[in-house]
Amino acid sequence: MSKYTIRGGNKIEGRLAIRGAKNSILPIIAATILNESVSTIHNVPDISDVYVMIKILESIGCKVKYEDGTLVVDSSNISSMEIDEHYVRKMRSSIIVMGAMIGRLDYTKISHPGGCAIGSRPIDLHLKALKELGVRIEEDDGFIKCYKDKLVGSTINFEFPSVGATENTMLAAVKAKGTTKIYNAAREPEIEDLQDFLNSMGAKVRGAGTNYIEIEGVETLHEVEHTVIPDRIAIGTYMVASAMTGGYLEVDRVIIPHMEPISDKLRAAGCSIEYKENGLVMTPPKIIQAIDLVRTSPHPGFPTDMQAQLMSLMALSNGTSVFHETIFENRFMHCAELTRLGANIKYITENICMIKGVANLHNAKVKSPDLRGGAALILAALTINGETEVSNIYHVERGYENIEQTLRSLGADILKVENLEKIKGC
Ligand SMILES: CC(=O)N[C@H]1[C@@H](OP(=O)(O)OP(=O)(O)OC[C@H]2O[C@@H](n3ccc(=O)[nH]c3=O)[C@H](O)[C@@H]2O)O[C@H](CO)[C@@H](O)[C@@H]1O
Ligand SMILES: C=C(OP(=O)(O)O)C(=O)O
């Protein structure tokens, strides 16, 4: 297994520009399936999840070229109606191709994605919405078969604003007959980015970013060129690295409103954040202030994808913080590993824990339990004198482009020890 060895103690500081958001590019790549033409996408991050999506597109007959952050997809010919189970097992979020496949074809078959380390992650809301659009669904032996008996606009009311279910519904509705109305839609910035991509290729979608999205079906789409929005979670992760190590950080290419739920908590921890045009400057806290309560919730609440990293920061705060994870039922796996590094964490319930700041963490060998949990361990290691080893880094590589090079460019002493390993993902 590949791992990072980190000798902490250096300030993480300097200037940074982050490429596109993982959670934008994955549904956007899925959306290219709808287009019987060429899609050109810029600012595509070089992460393993992108390569899994490229493999999926190639396996169904699309021609794909990915170079220097630009992805060109020619989906004029689709030669397979089925998605190989192998890819869905590698990356759970590949279920996002389901809506696009049934939008484009009369039939599709995809494996059930199952759960992953952070939770059981059912897809009942995705399937219910597709059924409401007229898709007949048969579930058999771990596979989902979708038949386009018809594809008609409908009214969908989500019980919970699921990001993936909102995206799958948008993708299926783009070419449906009539208008689809989604109530209680997810409001994440990545959904707006998907809307912008879809509209640039001729779709008629409006409302993304609010909890009501309307999609008027169209018959054809056309060539498109799009630039993916910056990754607010990756930016937030590097901001925490600077906050924990006492470094100043300047970040270019930022969409300021997207950062606010994260910036709000970093300010509460004592950071000072100044927004500039399309950028920000962060001054670290003199003493890391404990934040009484960190409760994750759908956007514009505090994102679950930053919970582990903020917990790492709170491990060195001047008091006690309570974390309440409300989105995923098993997203505290990093707690045990942070404890190995000297953090003082107590579980109150399965999804509430209390962390009391300590003066210093200490080195140990730790394992990334999942993508953001792995990032949290790297952040903790950056503060520790002596060598800390973080293994199972394939999780981290799903979502962070060259994290070791980026951190090194900001002053970290971090080395990737390579080993031949398959991309596993969750
Ligand atoms: C590729 C991508 O964009 N991933 C993001 C997306 O995941 P994802 O799209 O999987 O997240 P959802 O918003 O769908 O899931 C949130 C919660 O709803 C539950 N649920 C979801 C769908 C469903 O049909 N039934 C159901 O019960 C899930 O189990 C989970 O507990 O949003 C999450 C929440 O912001 C982020 O953490 C992930 O980084
Ligand atoms: C949970 C995450 O991603 P995914 O939905 O791709 O597993 C994440 O980005 O933190």
UniProtKB/TrEMBL annotation:
Q: Which GO terms describe its cellular component?
A: cytoplasm
Q: What is its main location?
A: cytoplasm
Pathway(s) where this gene product acts:
Cell wall biogenesis; peptidoglycan biosynthesis
A Pfam family matched in the record: EPSP_synthase
Q: Which residues carry this modification: 2-(S-cysteinyl)pyruvic acid O-phosphothioketal?
A: C116
Residue numbers binding UDP-N-acetyl-alpha-D-glucosamine: R92, R121, P122, I123, D124, L125, D305, I327
* The protein's role, per its UniProt record: Cell wall formation. Adds enolpyruvyl to UDP-N-acetylglucosamine.
Family classification: Belongs to the EPSP synthase family. MurA subfamily.
Name listed for the protein in its UniProt record: UDP-N-acetylglucosamine 1-carboxyvinyltransferase
Tell me what gene encodes this.
Answer: murA
